[in-house]
């Protein structure tokens, strides 16, 4: 963990009971919104990773990933989008099992690009009773059954204007990302 403190890449570790036991300074900066602060250490350390991962298929896929990484004993890379309001970001998360059952996560930035601010991604924007399913791996939005689009395109397709309130983004997994993960780790996921 000494080297992880100085690592410029975001690093965090969960223990064998899936509690977050370490985050480095780069992780805190990475988790911060474009103009703000990330979660405080007291909100993260010692708490289950499941407090940060929603119920349903998203959690099932992460549980599967963790079980397979621990069983296989080798590192695995999981590509994911980690977009901000005004920036697209792609990262590879390297999951490495440790001898005590812990898993080390290293977030390797692959690319990022600026974009006009997207109100749907702004956690400070007021939300109403409507909801949209958002893939937690590619950040696309489900516009109809089986059809997912980039958030800007989905906003146009669904005629969503930045009004006094916007729909909530419900975490999900598009069929492309779900199949990609299941091919890496074949198993049953609802």
TrEMBL record:
InterPro entries in the cross-refs: PAS, PAS-like_dom_sf
Top-level taxonomic group: Bacteria
UniProt-recorded name of the protein: PAS domain-containing protein
Species whose genome carries this gene: Steroidobacter agaridevorans
